[in-house]
Structure formats: structure tokens, C-alpha cells
Amino acid sequence: MRGVLRIINPYDPGIIPEGQVVNLSSNENPYEPSESVKRAFFDSIAKINRYPDASYSKLKKTISDFLSVEIEKISVGCGSSELISRVCDVVVEELDTVAVPMPSYSLYLIYAMLREANIVTPVFRDYKVEAEIFEELKPKLSIICSPNNPTGNKVKRKVVEKIVENSEFVLIDEAYVEFSDEHFLQFALEFDNVVVLRTFSKFFGLAGLRIGYAISSRELTEAIEKIRLPFAISGVAVEAAISAIKSFDYYADLRKRIVEERERMAKELMKLGLKVYPSYANFLLVKIDERAFDFLLGKGIMVRKIENILGLEGTHLRITVGRKEENDALIEALRSYLCESSAD
Ligand SMILES: *Cc1c(COP(=O)(O)O)cnc(C)c1O
User: Is the CB of 173 under 6 A from ligand 1?
Assistant: First the structure.
């Protein structure tokens, strides 16, 4: 076995909820798919004896029209997770410097490690990324996440510009971008060294079907497409994704609810005296003591516990914005937790 496998920590998917719990742990869309997505899903079942279209041209055409981006600049993968791995495969040679600002998504480190890269993890308090270190490092690949998981904030446009200038390649993970007021797609269209990564898992609520896509130069797109797993996205998932884009208005309405709920929750949690990070995503990061997570679990509420990761000292909870009644349950549970612990 390769030595590097001994030092790779497994990706932490959180605890899989069992039974009746309020699940606010994985940043999923809390609503059901649109009726037409359900119909597309069921209608496509009759064809699961066949392989899906290997080129995924119908899916790419739909994404291409949706974003007004040439089809030759779109690659697809089994979740954007697969594409993180493929981008590393395409650009990173052994001992190349890969810069991954922290605190951010841990999956980047796993795939960069697998390439035997020289990984540098500059720490920025609350992911307030600055460009200077990239000017020094001149990384082969820089991986940034905006809005960032788990802090919820955006990287400043000026900083992205500087990172793009100073890196041979840049991967910008925009998994949560539909909940934000700013995106960086233009960088992938203007510069040959930038890959923008998107997913159907969050805004389009298809986390269970595994569809991601990337926008990059024709050359990078061709390379990614060449090495991705053939047939990794099922035909059923393809039909659901195409239908989801066609149901855009339905999802835009859900986004409105989610963003309104995010702002309401942030206010309520701040009223409880908690430190809440400003979020442009569908989750909130909250600083709290280490016993809160178990208390919430005891009340049947599952959130993500984030402890002692680079750049985020102490214990935090990453709370997905759910449906109104779920959010109310979370707020009430935290209220009684804070009452009880202040009574101690
Ligand atoms: C959820 C998430 C993704 C999406 O992963 P999929 O494989 O597309 O489900 C990608 N990046 C980040 C930072 C995420 O939080």
C-alpha cells in the first residue's frame, strides 16, 4: 500500500441520522424536489438496464443554456467531489505546491495528498483570505471555497484576482454560490487557469443523486472529461438534474425561503448572545461550548460539530438552514440549553 494512505484521515461525513431527528447537519436542501423532477426521475427508471449517455451531452447542453457558457467549457462528475479529485489529477504533479486556505473543506486535502503534493494550509482567521502568501508561494494549484464551508463567508473579489494572478491553476468551489449575492464564474471564462466548481447537491436539492459540474477553459475541460469515471452519473440522475434546471423558478422560491430563514435564525441566535458568523450560504456557523452538540442531539436535533480545525479555535456548530419548524426547534433547544448552562 502507498505510504500516503497511512497519513490520510478519512473524510468525516458526520453522523448519519437515525429515526426521528431534525437533520440540520449536512447543508442539504430541506425541501422535496419539484413535481417535474420527481416525474423525470420515475420516467427514467424504465431505462436503467442501459448505460447512460457517456458524453452527457444533453445534461451539458442544459447547463450550457442555463449559464450561457459554451458546452466545451463544461465538465461533469459524480458530485463536485469527483471533480475536486479530477482537477488534482489533471494539474498536480508530485511535490507541487497546493495551497488550501483554512478553515475550509477537508476533502481538498485528501485529493491533494493522494497526488503527493506539497500541501500548504495558510490559516486565515474566520477564512478572511488575504493574497500576500500566494504571491510568495506561487502555488501550482490554489483551492478556495466561496461561500466557504464551514464559515459561510465569501472571498473578496480583489483577493481572488490576486490568487489567480499568482497561481498556475485555481479551483474555486462554489457549492453554495446560489445562496450568495456574488459569484466568480467570470474568472473561469476569462482565464485559462481557473476552474469554477458547482453542484446539484445544495440549491437544486439533489444531494442523493450525485451530480456536479465544472466550468473551465476548453483545454482543462477536455482533460477533466478524458479522465473522469465513465458513466459515473446515472441516467436517472441526469434526467432529474435536467428537470431541476427547468424547474428553476421552483428552486428560486425555495432559495428565497432559505435565505429569509437564514437571516431570521442569525438574528434569533444573536439575541441568545451567541457569536454567529455572517453567512452567504444555506448554513450558519455558531461559536458555543463543547456540550451544546450532545444537548441538541438529546433533543433530536442533529447539527455538525466543528472542533479545533485550523483557523477556528474552540467548538463551533455548523447549522444547516432547514424548514421553518425545524429552525424554530433548533432555536428553542439552544435557548433552553443556554438557560440551563447559565443556571449551573
Ligand atoms: C457540499 C459541498 C460540495 C458538494 O459535494 P457534492 O459531491 O457535489 O455533493 C462541494 N464542496 C463543498 C465545500 C461542499 O460543502
Answer: yes
